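Anyone? Bumping this.
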Amino acid sequence: MNTSDGADRLEAFRAYRDRMNERILEEKDHLGIKRFFNLDSAAYRDGALDGGTKELLGLVASMVLRCNDCIDYHLQQCIEQGFSDEELEDAMNVALVVGGSIVIPHLRHAVETIDLLREEKEKASE
Amino acid sequence: MNTSDGADRLEAFRAYRDRMNERILEEKDHLGIKRFFNLDSAAYRDGALDGGTKELLGLVASMVLRCNDCIDYHLQQCIEQGFSDEELEDAMNVALVVGGSIVIPHLRHAVETIDLLREEKEKASE
Amino acid sequence: MNTSDGADRLEAFRAYRDRMNERILEEKDHLGIKRFFNLDSAAYRDGALDGGTKELLGLVASMVLRCNDCIDYHLQQCIEQGFSDEELEDAMNVALVVGGSIVIPHLRHAVETIDLLREEKEKASE
Amino acid sequence: MNTSDGADRLEAFRAYRDRMNERILEEKDHLGIKRFFNLDSAAYRDGALDGGTKELLGLVASMVLRCNDCIDYHLQQCIEQGFSDEELEDAMNVALVVGGSIVIPHLRHAVETIDLLREEKEKASE
Amino acid sequence: MNTSDGADRLEAFRAYRDRMNERILEEKDHLGIKRFFNLDSAAYRDGALDGGTKELLGLVASMVLRCNDCIDYHLQQCIEQGFSDEELEDAMNVALVVGGSIVIPHLRHAVETIDLLREEKEKASE
Amino acid sequence: MNTSDGADRLEAFRAYRDRMNERILEEKDHLGIKRFFNLDSAAYRDGALDGGTKELLGLVASMVLRCNDCIDYHLQQCIEQGFSDEELEDAMNVALVVGGSIVIPHLRHAVETIDLLREEKEKASE
């Protein structure tokens, strides 16, 4: 599989996300919006449930609500947390059954993202 | 808290669910629909991820998609799987942050259901 | 199956619908809202597609968007248009596959509504 | 129009809402959930936009997302802020056009709620 | 109208769809996901309702749930089933009325896709 | 910030929107669809609520329903109506709290669009 375009896709997403988050949080500086971003980060920290499980919950929520950017973000976190491909597929299967065939285009996107993230990791460890 | 109405609510939900599932699966007997129900059950069995984690994923998916019947069903399974109140609250917090304040009415419903399920369990073990 | 409560449910839905539609269209008399209601009715009249097919489309759209009142309304129209139980089940199966298990509570509701509507028709023809 | 059942509906909603909010905020006391509730309240306070306009925004958001409890809550706030029936109808018309006929059952609910709230206010001022 | 970019869009969609479906079904080989894909295909086969009507149901479900990839897929099937432009417009009108103005960007996409598919067919028959 | 790509994005969106609207309204000429487009335009005209407030309602509805094209269109109207950045941020904060973190990618998009629209306006007034 040729994933060179795909790799650019991940980098472009990260760059855009960083640039706009900075624009929103540093420059716009709206108190309510800033507090929401903080609350969002806090929701995935270790607590009664560990951070890994919470990222998996975030992934499935993002899939049934069908948001590719959110899926990419949570997949990145899930892979950093050490989930295997088989575990991620089990989670995505739950999302598929709950959310239906309308989730399938996002499943394709997610599987591509997983491949790209694994490839990045391999390159980084060479 | 007086939860007598609430307890009836859980029983009424279970009775209606059983009656209509029987009507759909036994009497209607549509192959596609039956296969969907089987696939749905299979998605929560132990696999690469254990059944408990999958039920938690089902709970959060149900909350962000805002379906009270689905929430009640997955809460029942989660409590049978042994999740504590604190763990369920952490999961529901992820659903609240991802799905927004529109999830709050379903959070109220879910917290009531948890109380009712704990009460049932206590009575059963008396 | 005892459907006496269910029969009341259909009557209560129709009475509430009629009362509030009258309140909205006759008394409130907001031009934009009235025109929307007219456009809504017109969308299901015979055209390039016949009215029956359009009602079936309305049913599936209502199921994947998970609106019980809309489901009940379109089921009533579909049955008046002469669709058989098997045809309705085929349509609901498409809704189930596209929309996922989150549609199941609405499938239960829909199957009960079909039973109630068939029962009404039988009584009326006695 | 006989709205006695309806009046009970508003009271039942408020009682349930208060009871469960207390259960969630006082007893459950989950930090993330409490902070979310605070953020939610803060979003509707006077700022660059006045609180009234924000409640109207909350109403339209609740209608297109189709949450009756949220609609009832924001209608109450909108009426306290002094919006006329005609202004509320204009806002609901935007929700109807953006969200489609699937919003109609919630429009019926909203119009009933407005009637009930006006009636309450009249009684209170007698 | 210059649709050369558009034609590339259809080809790119098909190539991506085929590549990722193969990756998911052949290589990933997750039993639940594979069974879901089979169930999805089966839902559109001739039954009590003919396959054509089912594709039209799939199209309207995809439009109200606002998924461009799903719209493109079902439009392709609908055109293979022989639906005329006028019939497709009637179906899309139902989707527009049920789903509201939020569907309009997807209506634009769908009309472009229909044009591209008709153009392809013409070229193929030259 | 380099927004040259972004500026092209706005122009490309407007050109595509105009081209497809003309294709739909002038050439396709489906009565129901045309009437829907008229109803859509009419919903934002001055009435009991002024057109500016209605555009703000349309913006928030578009954000919670997560439609970037709709967000871009309403932002353009809001800025023509004279809303300040701070007012738009207050409105978007309501959308964020109601709709949850799933709205964040659309918030990024919206903030970029506001920047691009302000830039266009500056250039035009030079």
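Late reply, but here is one note on the structure posted above: The CA atoms of residues 39 and 108 of chain F lie 30 Å apart.
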